[in-house]
Design a protein that fits this description.
- The chain has 21 helices and no strands.
- With 515 residues, it is mainly α.
- Helix 3 packs parallel to helix 9, helix 7 packs parallel to helix 11 and helix 15 packs antiparallel against helix 18.
- The chain starts with a helix and ends with a helix.
């Protein structure tokens, strides 16, 4: 086995094991699960581990160099209309290829899937172009985000309450395993050409602005469409009795993901071919490496999505339904928080972001510290989501204070942490959120008889919100430590300077005495 691939699979194993352990523990202590269902879950976990390993290596080999290359080429031109067209086109292509968006679109009633997908894609395209121009012209990310989120909150009061949660969820699902590696690398490529002191901090923020676009676009769409009865079909646990039945179940369910991921990757592969034809940026060896990377990405996403949807989602829905049906349903809140803490580690795009942050900051912000902050943020958001399901708390009551806090913090933390924090919000809400946490919320909502559109949906939006605050608080701590260190260095220099003066004075006295 490829040594690099082995390393990635072992990383994935360490990320997925805690979730598997939590579910196994719950099945023993609280919610007895049939043996066949548990075997399906474990098989799904195995596919998830292998799939994530392939995906991470594939993204590193293909999506990252492609995005960075396009970013560098864009930086070499000052033709604003051309920059906008390229940014818009790439945003639309990448978004249409995002598998998570297909999942969300199929759940929204009264709006044709294609209409919702194109609306979201146009929103991402416009705001990715805006994000590129922001980097090139060095416009403050904090100022733009404050203006945009103020507009979002204002428009949200004009949209049907049934549509609100889905609109904010759309911002999270568009920044998934396909888009994040590409967009993050594009930001690095754009900033690398500048070479000024703010280049590294400005390389972040593309994901953040790309997440705002679909929310605003879908909110505007919501003014003209009304939601009807929810057409959600809860994931059911396959009835298996032998190991052969388990294998058949996964093989039978794999073809849709084979087609879905192929359709997702074709537009990106076409972009790479045209880019290489016109720029000849990559040598032949690099071209072969990118092609192999696309193959790894394809295999990884197929295995990942099949494992999660066939093995994880049904168990998530089952756990939510069973626990919420009991008199001790409030125990679901800390359980959800525990699952949220560990589930973010299993998001493929999170690992891509964390490694890139560690690289750009030269290790001053470690991947381990990023993981810890992201886990705490997502844990809090899942707890709030479950609380909403059990109480029917309006999502406005959480979103507005949360975004206000995030906006205020953005004026006090280092610029780099603003971009990292808002990128992290979009990245955290990936496939694991939509295929395990959302079914968990929906199962609980069905059990308590809540409104699916207003109570269960919104978990993706909240998962995307809390890392904004958690990462910026880490930035405040980082800034405090930096100032403390600088103060200590200054004090040490003053002491050394005083000692030098004393030493020179004593030497002068000795010279006078000798004279």
């Amino acid at each position: 086995m490829n040594q690099k691939l082995k390393e990635k699979i072992l990383e994935s194993l360490s990320a997925v094991l805690p979730i598997t352990g939590i579910v196994l523990l719950l099945s023993i202590l609280l919610v007895p699960i049939e043996l066949g269902t548990m075997v399906m879950f474990i098989m799904g976990a195995l596919l998830l581990v292998v799939g994530m390993g392939f995906f991470q290596l594939g993204a590193e080999m293909s999506m990252t160099p492609l995005g960075e290359g396009i970013g560098v080429q864009i930086s070499k031109t000052r033709h604003i209309p051309l920059i906008f067209i390229i940014g818009f086109s790439m945003g639309v292509i990448i978004t249409i290829s995002e598998p998570d968006l297909q999942v969300l679109a199929s759940q929204v009633p009264s709006i044709p899937n294609l209409t919702l997908i194109l609306t979201v894609a146009v929103g991402v395209g416009i705001f990715l172009a805006v994000a590129i121009l922001r980097i090139l012209f060095q416009i403050s990310l904090s100022t733009i985000l404050i203006l945009l989120y103020t507009a979002l909150i204002g428009v949200s009061f004009l949209v049907s309450r049934d549509f609100l949660a889905v609109a904010f969820d759309s911002g999270g699902v568009t920044t998934g395993p396909m888009t994040v590696p590409f967009i993050m690398a594009m930001g690095v490529g754009l900033a690398s050409v500048r070479g000024d002191k703010n280049a590294s901090s400005d390389s972040f923020g593309l994901v953040a602005l790309s997440s705002v676009g679909p929310i605003l676009a879908v909110l505007l769409l919501g003014m003209f469409f009304t939601t009807g009865e929810t057409a959600y079909s809860a994931a059911t646990v396959a009835d298996v009795s032998t190991t052969r039945d388990v294998i058949k179940e996964f093989l039978f369910n794999m073809p849709p993901y084979v087609r879905e991921v192929l359709i997702s990757l074709i537009p990106v592969a076409v972009v790479f071919l045209f880019f290489q034809m016109f720029t000849h940026r990559y040598p032949q060896r690099q071209v072969k490496r990118v092609i192999v990377g696309f193959s790894y990405t394809y295999i990884g996403l197929v295995l990942f999505l099949c494992g999660v949807n066939v093995g994880f989602a049904p168990v998530g829905s089952l756990l939510g339904n069973e626990i919420a049906s009991e008199s001790w349903r409030w125990l679901l809140v800390p359980i959800g928080m525990l699952i949220g803490y560990y589930i973010v580690k299993a998001e493929p795009a999170i690992q891509v972001l964390n490694r890139q942050v560690e690289s750009v900051t030269n290790g001053s912000v470690s991947a381990k510290a990023m993981n810890r902050c992201m886990s705490l943020g997502v844990s809090a958001s899942v707890g709030l989501s479950i609380l909403r399901v059990l109480t029917g708390l309006p999502i406005h009551w959480i979103l507005i204070p949360g975004y206000v806090i995030a906006m205020v913090l953005s004026r006090f933390v280092p610029k780099m942490f603003v971009g990292i924090a808002f990128d992290s919000g979009g990245v955290a809400s990936g496939p694991m959120t939509t295929t395990f946490l959302l079914p968990l919320s929906i199962g609980a909502c069905n059990a308590v008889g809540g409104n699916l559109m207003t109570d269960a949906f919104g978990v993706v939006a909240l998962v995307a919100l809390t890392p904004l605050i958690a990462i910026q608080l880490m930035g405040v701590l980082y800034q405090y430590r930096l100032k403390t260190t600088e103060k200590d260095v200054v004090q040490e220099m003053d002491i050394l300077s005083s000692m030098d003066v004393i030493f020179e004075f004593e030497e002068g006295d000795e010279d006078d005495g000798n004279a």
